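Field reference: sequence -> structure
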Amino acid sequence: MARPLKQTPTPTKTGPLTPELIGQFVRAKRTQSGLRIDDAADLCGVSVETISKIETAKGGVTTTNLFKVLNGLGLKMQMEPWS
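Structure field:
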């Protein structure tokens, strides 16, 4: 029997977007969707290592793979003009 997946709460964005914050959003969406990391990797067409690097804000992830994960999990980033 599979171990139950603990849902991660959705983070609050209070400042600029950082790799750590992106990772928190990805992990929250994945766990709230009931996806284990290997299932999310299959769904998004990337490796488990890629998802892990994003969630832990490690370097070495291409923007192509980042967008595969964001799109695969139904997340979007929004650009805003600066002042």
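Note: DSSP finds four helices and no strands in the chain.
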